[in-house]
């Protein structure tokens, strides 16, 4: 029988394989996939670099690597992702939470902490529930509701609330349907809506285009239809002095500022991300 590959040898071979296939950050991907198989942290691999892999471990590693080489996102292969210091389950039914969205959560926490009374928060298009759960976990005075059109996404969100020991109410609702008004009234509405314009779908990364739920990515129109509709709804379901927070994509700030302006929102503020790009827009009702 031939000698089995060690941790270090298999990581090196896998890095090369992923690099040739055009996967970004091949070393990190190779290490994270193997760490998951060996139930250890990425850095722990270096404490066992000469440990031989079993045949089963190699078989599983091969399967993971071929999925990644087909551009399946790492997070779907691992079935989880870190967000705001918590672990979230992810499946192909939910958008993968992004680090930029942590900034949105941080801004809302800062704003909501200044309010002494109870704050009712609605997360529109909650997906995996990452925003809603992170807010509920960090705001003692909040009562958070997460809404999504997808029943399958809501199953994942409910499981994430259980896994993180957080009580969030998740409800099925379509923002373009009248049933959205049955959710009640809120002091703060947040959304990271599908904002990619139809014409930009083709230029998205393979990982997004071929694997993430398309309804979570694009509005199949000009990229602004959810911003307009959610701003419209907010005029009706936000309490006086209520706040609206959006995550936006690069270059959308002027149009989204206009959308809020036209509807009478005040104190409109745009916040940049770590790359210096406008990422978050907030507005307030008088
Ligand atoms: N609320 C989730 C997030 O921000 C999902 C958003 C979406 O599906 N567009 O990651």
CATH architecture of the largest domain: 3-Layer(aba) Sandwich
Largest sheet report: 7 strands, mixed
CATH superfamily of the largest domain: Vaccinia Virus protein VP39
Residue-averaged pLDDT, rounded?
96
> What shape does the CA trace take?
elongated
The radius of gyration is 21 Å
Proportion of residues in β-strands: 15-25%
Number of domains: 2
What ions, cofactors and ligands are bound? glutamine
Order of helices and strands: HHHHEEHEHEHEEHHHEHEE
CATH class of the largest domain: Alpha Beta
For the largest beta sheet, what order do the strands appear in spatially?
5-4-3-6-7-9-8
Structural class determined from secondary elements: alpha/beta
Level of helix content?
A: 40-55%
CATH topology of the largest domain: Rossmann fold
Tell me the distance between the termini. Answer: 76 Å
Assembly state of the chains shown: single chain
Number of helices: 11
Number of strands: 9
Low-confidence stretches: none
């Amino acid at each position: 029988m031939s000698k089995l590959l060690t941790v270090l040898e298999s990581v090196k071979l896998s890095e090369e394989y992923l690099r040739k296939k055009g996967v970004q950050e091949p070393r990190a991907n190779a290490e994270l996939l193997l760490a998951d198989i060996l139930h250890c942290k990425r850095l722990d691999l270096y404490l066992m670099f000469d440990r031989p892999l079993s045949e089963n471990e190699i078989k599983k590693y091969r399967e993971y690597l071929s999925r990644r080489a087909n551009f399946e996102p790492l997070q779907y292969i691992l079935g989880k992702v870190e967000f705001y210091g918590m672990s979230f389950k992810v499946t192909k039914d939910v958008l993968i939470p992004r680090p930029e969205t942590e900034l949105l959560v941080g801004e809302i926490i800062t704003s909501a902490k200044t309010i002494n009374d109870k704050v009712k928060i609605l997360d529109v298009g909650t997906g995996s529930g990452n925003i809603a759960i992170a807010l509920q976990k960090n705001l003692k005075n909040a009562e958070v509701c997460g809404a999504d059109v997808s029943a399958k996404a809501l199953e994942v969100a409910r499981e994430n609330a259980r896994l993180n020991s957080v009580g969030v109410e998740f409800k099925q609702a379509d923002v373009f349907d009248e049933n959205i008004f049955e959710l009640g009234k809120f002091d703060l509405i947040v959304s990271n809506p599908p904002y990619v314009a139809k014409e930009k779908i083709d230029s998205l990364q393979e990982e997004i285009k071929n694997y993430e739920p398309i309804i979570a990515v694009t509005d199949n129109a000009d990229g602004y239809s959810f911003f307009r509709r959610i701003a419209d709804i907010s005029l009706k379901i936000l309490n006086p002095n209520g706040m609206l927070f959006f995550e936006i994509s690069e270059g959308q700030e002027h149009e989204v500022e206009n959308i809020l302006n036209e509807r009478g929102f005040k104190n409109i503020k745009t916040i940049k991300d770590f790359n210096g790009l406008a990422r978050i827009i907030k507005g307030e009702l008088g």
